[in-house]
Amino acid sequence: MDDVDSSQLITNDHLVQSEDPDHPANLIPELCKRFYQWGWVTGTGGGTSIRRDNHVFIAPSGVQKELMKSENIFVLEYPTPKYPPSARKYLRKPLALKPSDCTPLFLAAFDHGATCCIHTHSQWAVLVTLLVEKLHGKDAMFEISNIEQIKGIPKGREKGMLGFHDTLRIPIIENTPFEEDLTEYLEKAMAKYPDTYAVLVRRHGIYAWGDTVAKAKTQCESLDYLFQLAVEMHKLGISWT
Amino acid sequence: MDDVDSSQLITNDHLVQSEDPDHPANLIPELCKRFYQWGWVTGTGGGTSIRRDNHVFIAPSGVQKELMKSENIFVLEYPTPKYPPSARKYLRKPLALKPSDCTPLFLAAFDHGATCCIHTHSQWAVLVTLLVEKLHGKDAMFEISNIEQIKGIPKGREKGMLGFHDTLRIPIIENTPFEEDLTEYLEKAMAKYPDTYAVLVRRHGIYAWGDTVAKAKTQCESLDYLFQLAVEMHKLGISWT
Amino acid sequence: MDDVDSSQLITNDHLVQSEDPDHPANLIPELCKRFYQWGWVTGTGGGTSIRRDNHVFIAPSGVQKELMKSENIFVLEYPTPKYPPSARKYLRKPLALKPSDCTPLFLAAFDHGATCCIHTHSQWAVLVTLLVEKLHGKDAMFEISNIEQIKGIPKGREKGMLGFHDTLRIPIIENTPFEEDLTEYLEKAMAKYPDTYAVLVRRHGIYAWGDTVAKAKTQCESLDYLFQLAVEMHKLGISWT
Amino acid sequence: MDDVDSSQLITNDHLVQSEDPDHPANLIPELCKRFYQWGWVTGTGGGTSIRRDNHVFIAPSGVQKELMKSENIFVLEYPTPKYPPSARKYLRKPLALKPSDCTPLFLAAFDHGATCCIHTHSQWAVLVTLLVEKLHGKDAMFEISNIEQIKGIPKGREKGMLGFHDTLRIPIIENTPFEEDLTEYLEKAMAKYPDTYAVLVRRHGIYAWGDTVAKAKTQCESLDYLFQLAVEMHKLGISWT
User: Region (Disordered) spans which residues (chains A, B, C, D) (predicted)?
Assistant: First the structure.
């Protein structure tokens, strides 16, 4: 029914048409509108993707995120090869829009078990990557403990949430000139820290994911809260751990 | 009519259905939407509860506060035992939702005479608890005077509002790994400072309450304004008292 | 037609009922909703008043400014005695609401020729009053020059707008325990600086006014922009003049 | 059909009436509403203009930008003389509104190939011009590199976007007492830096433009993001390049 036939590429409109507000093609524009207000997807930056069964829904590249519509959403068959882009099995490719450069990174998160992956350019995330490098060097992770909001982040899949006295650790990878080239480093960080639900990208932002769409969003909010608090704590001379 | 019969637990829908915008089941979602915009209930953090006659309405645990609906609200008979949770007399328990961990803390506020209790994770509140500890030690309260907005906070029940030259004092308790365990310390702080309308929780946020829903909200706003101002004053080298 | 007859006090509803969005009774709630979003009227703080012909419309005391309705508006005959409050000629007094403590201050602005007066508790205004005192002492005014936004403030009535190289000067008065007692000092500042369209109140906020409602609002915005910029400039070690 | 006949000046209403949301007369009010929320056009500051074929649409001077309507838009024939103002060929001049002082600056951007030009008073832009002067002197440009968001800015017309390791350079011109007098300096900066899509104005704000309306907006957002980040980086002692 959803043949990967290039003649049909732009006709599978039924894949993004639904009255259900919880359908991925409706959720992605709704989430992006909210993320725009938080400054997470300024100037077409950032993106969001949701996997449902064997379909992956992705916001397109280079559009104003707060104006995105369901009809702008790309749909991939899942699983699908990450490289080369031409090998990816698109079920729907909106005419005149470009697929997101974040596509292989989102696919990596889904391979890791996620249902939704959010990529933001949040300034708090960027500032935290700069502060960690300045204070502890390039190999250090972001670490914070003894803050209630840490309890909004899981210890790992099916391991429950972090406790107040636990230390939240988020790995930081270096940025690459081409976003797709981050995939390798993101996957390495996931392999090294299999329990993490997010990876910071130095001078760039964050990739955060979750077992459900709601968890991806609320965990990403909790992380951003902690990054902002950490920057303000640093300004006031208060240490993070 | 509202029997505490477990077979009826999820059927007392009439308790949260009302056309009246001032009904607690309508006010709580409305307030939470606003608090989300202020960053007070980021990532499912925080919560709100209203008592009306012998009913207590509580926002559920772990939901996106800006998307909450009347039908998500828990209703308890009041008074009800605080512990153990199983002894609490629920008149309405929405299927698939968890009661808030703040429940015994809200009940403590109602025992203290409140009509509405608001719990936020406001970063300004958290930063103030950190600054007070850094400047004056763990036993110190937050103190500020000679700021007009102080007049938005009462001196105590039926004692009128604080004056411009009065000193506002908010007790600070230490956080505990489990939110429910805060209840004991909240009650002790209430007993020690019977006139206070709020208690700060170090590295966590604030519990604030009021004699009416409007007063709980506006007092909580005034406190948050003062916490933000205090942090900025500190950055500029200006003392709080 | 609008007799000041106490039996009619709450029945002159026609004075606040209009389909015209530019009617003062419609503008005041609209403005207050906006000011709430800017943090200018947090927790029932601040207020707004508009004079039209021989009527003065005033937001009530102690209400949530973002929820205010036309029917909450007080109407005074203008001119009217400032003191004692009982001598003021109310044409409309909403039942169960208290007249604003800012009433004599608004009247002072109207006596000075204003059409609309806005009172905010903006934190930027408060911080600027604290910084001026710290840097230049209690007798100093707030002064800033060579910022484009200064051109949004008039030189004085019918004197055109300030130029880029002009110095904007806003007098600062000390706060008093009772808001009404500020009136004397506000009037003295107006007498001493007849060209000013605003007076800062130390540790409290600002009173700003304008020849039209739009001018009062946009001038108040420009001032708040300058206060915020001034605080940030100070943090970066850049002087204001 | 659109004669520049003074008797018709205010009757060419069809030029600003369209059901198409992407019509310039609909886009400008929509954009200004958004810019108001970002603090870019506080107190009637700033402005926006769009060129379509041989028509130039401009927001008027001195209006509340968030309340602007299509019917408030001025329309010029393009090309048109920049000076004197009386030589400009207005196709539509709304009664009782003043043409924007930014008019010749917008025309300069269109002469340079732009389709949309945005002028903001963003505080981040102003602070960056002050910091550059303080750190590097009056002749220095704003420079930043190794930040992902830089990729939102083009290298120059038909040259693709900047890369992560490229340095973004934005020229800064000195402010002039009269906005129109900036035109000469803006044009000189454009001639000297033909690839730039923006020019900062010291102590004033920014002019930014784009090949399409969407690009002008998203590039302006990316620049503002970078200015804010740069100010915060400076506060944390982290260099921009």
Answer: 1-22
Judge whether B55 is annotated as a binding position: no
**Residue from D119, D121, D172 whose CB has the most chain C CBs within 10 Å, to mutate:** D121
Beta bridge partners of A200: A172, A206
| C-alpha–C-alpha distance, residues A145 and A240, integer Å | 7
Which domains can be identified in chain B, with CATH numbers?
13-236 (3.40.225.10)
Q: Is D6 helix (H, G, I), strand (E, B) or coil?
A: helix
Q: Which are the contacts of A106, defined by CB distance < 8 A and separation ≥ 6? A: A47, A49, A56, A58, A100, A117, A119
Tens of pLDDT, residues B7-52: 445 679 999 999 999 999 999 999 999 999 999 999 999 999 999 9
Of D163, D214, D235, the CB nearest to A235: D235
Give the residue numbers of the binding site of A.
Answer: 102, 119, 121, 204
Active site residues of D: 148
Tally C-beta pairs within 8 A across A and D.
66
ipTM computed for the complex: 0.96
Q: Do C149 and D234 touch (CB under 8 A)?
A: no
D121 is an annotated ligand-binding site residue: yes
What residues of C are in contact with residue D127 (Cβ under 8 Å)? Answer: 229, 232-233, 236
Distance from CA of C223 to the nearest CA of B (A): 19
DSSP state of A162: P
**Is C232 labeled as catalytic in the residue annotation?**
no
pTM for the model stands at 0.96
In this predicted structure, the answer to whether residue D191 has a pLDDT above a threshold of 50 is yes
- Per-residue pLDDT reduced to its tens digit, C29-80: 999 999 999 999 999 999 999 999 999 999 999 899 999 999 999 999 999 9
Mean pLDDT for all residues in chain D: 95
For residues D118 and D31, the answer to whether their CB atoms sit within 8 Å is yes
Would you say residue C3 has pLDDT above 50? no
Q: Residue B224 and residue B219: Cα distance in Å, rounded?
A: 9
Of B146, B222, B224, the CB nearest to C203: B146
Residue D149's nearest CA partner among D224, D207, D216 is D224
Task: Please report, as a single letter, which amino acid is at residue C58.
Answer: I
Spell out a b/e string for D6-19, using b for 16 or more CB atoms within 10 Å of the CB, else e.
eeeeeebeebbeee
Alpha-carbon span A173 to C116, nearest angstrom:
55
Nearest chain C alpha carbon to B227 = C123
Judged by a CB distance cut-off of 8 A, whether residue A233 touches chain D is no
Closest CB to A236 among B43, B127, B203: B127
A134–D236 C-beta distance less than 8 A: yes
Q: Return the HEC string of chain C.
A: CCCCCHHHCCCCHHHHCCCCCCCHHHHHHHHHHHHHHCCCCHHHCCEEEEEECCEEEECCECCCHHHCCHHHCEEEECCCCCCCHHHCCEEECCCCCECCCCHHHHHHHHHCCCCEEEEECCHHHHHHHHHHHHHHCCCCCEEEECCHHHHHCECCCCCCECCCCCEEEECEECCCCCHHHHHHHHHHHHHHCCCCCEEEECCCEEEEEECCHHHHHHHHHHHHHHHHHHHHHHHCCCCCC
Report the gap between the CA of C222 and the closest CA in chain D (Å). 5
Which chain C residue has its CA at the smallest distance from D65's CA?
A: C218
- Which residues numbered 143-182 in D keep a CB inside 8 Å of some CB on A? 146-149, 152, 163-165
Q: Is B205 on the interface with A (CB under 8 A)?
A: yes
Write the pLDDT tens digit of every residue in B78-88. Answer: 999 999 999 99
- Tokens in use for B217? 């909200």
What number of residues does chain D have?
Answer: 241
Q: Is A78 exposed, middle or buried (0-12, 13-18, 19+ CB in 10 A)?
A: middle
Radius of gyration of chain C (CA): 18
Q: Are strands D172-173 and D198-201 parallel, antiparallel or unpaired?
A: parallel
